[in-house]
Amino acid sequence: xxxxxxxxxxxxxxxxxxxxxxxxxxxxxxxxxxxxxxxxxxxxxxxxxxxxxxxxxxxxxxxxxxxxxxxxxxxxxxxxxxxxxxxxxxxxxxxxxxxxxxxxxxxxxxxxxxxxxxxxxxxxxxxxxxxxxxxxxxxxxxxxxxxxxxxxxxxxxxxxxxxxxxxxxxxxxxxxxxxxxxxxxxxxxxxxxxxxxxxxxxxxxxxxxxxxxxxxxxxxxxxxxxxxxxxxxxxxxxxxxxxxxxxxxxxxxxxxxxxxxxxxxxxxxxxxxxxxxxxxxxxxxxxxxxxxxxxxxxxxxxxxxxxxxxxxxxxxxxxxxxxxxxxxxxxxxxxxxxxxxxxxxxxxxxxxxxxxxxxxxxxxxxxxxxxxxxxxxxxxxxxxxxxxxxxxxxxxxxxxxxxxxxxxxxxxxxxxxxxxxxxxxxxxxxxxx
Length: 433
What we know:
The protein folds into 2 domains: about 25-45 and about 55-155 and about 170-185, no CATH class; about 200-425, MetI-like fold. Helices cover about 55% and strands about 10% of the residues. The radius of gyration is 31 Å and the shape is elongated. It is built from 16 helices and 6 strands. The N and C termini lie close together (about 10 Å). By secondary structure, the protein is mainly alpha-helical.
């Protein structure tokens, strides 16, 4: 048991570097793949300017340098790749809630309402040409900092301005900002580009639907696949086994999303036997408690079939093959030779060992609690994490993409460890050294 504890400790210690590698690769892809969020936003503004009066040359809406810089700040594209990744992790401070103010040549102080929901800040110019940011109580702020954004002289606003006119006063742009650690390690995945809300709030709103289908698929697949696999093993090469194998392999050859598209356009939907999509009807809130249960069940049937088709075939054949291997083992033949009834030899000896691979598959099923199915949820318009991930990739909503990938990778790693633990619990012969 001591060796096993050391083994699992090593497995847990491998989770952080593995997550680091996975998230780094995905982050680099989001930065270097063409058509990022900034390009999409500019394209949207260009389309909006095609028919508007504010359109610039060529129909593109003109953006000032400040507006373009603000867009880069919004998407955190104003810093390098390395700093951006470590800021996303929360181990590198990021300057957020920035605001620029302009100091005239004679101005000594300006009252600034801070970029965040706080009391006003007082920005003072010192004799040395430097600045300081003061809290409402008059004390030097330890949170807010300053830096010179731009220093230039105002220029004549028209081309016919008199060259002999006096030079306009010098204006200094000062940027007030706050540096803080805010990333994954602090439980902050940032804000969604599309929804403008914290990423975890958006994910948690969709998670119950994905968990519902994941748990239901797991229960139904195990409750059907295990008895069916046992039945097929006991009826090996008989007509029951041949017919069920034909149906299972036929179902296994059909991807879940392809079956979803087929069912969504089938006569079952056209004849209003089942709804076309969603998880509830439009009048769901007006139904009774039992009516709500029936409505959800009615909407669940077709998507559940698509979720089950792959796992159902895999588990059934795995159960059959494992049980047949154990039935042909020497210890089963010895038990039968000693007078143990065949059905007791099957249930008391072979079945227990055959269930070991089935039990270990529970760990890998954890990944379904996060990822869902992108295409199945897209076809049936199920508001789960799968549909959220699909829409986030299409819309280049990279904070949500990064969060879903990170959480999915974490669940997969934990599922692998759980699988090893179940192997050790079910099979006492296994030792992890």
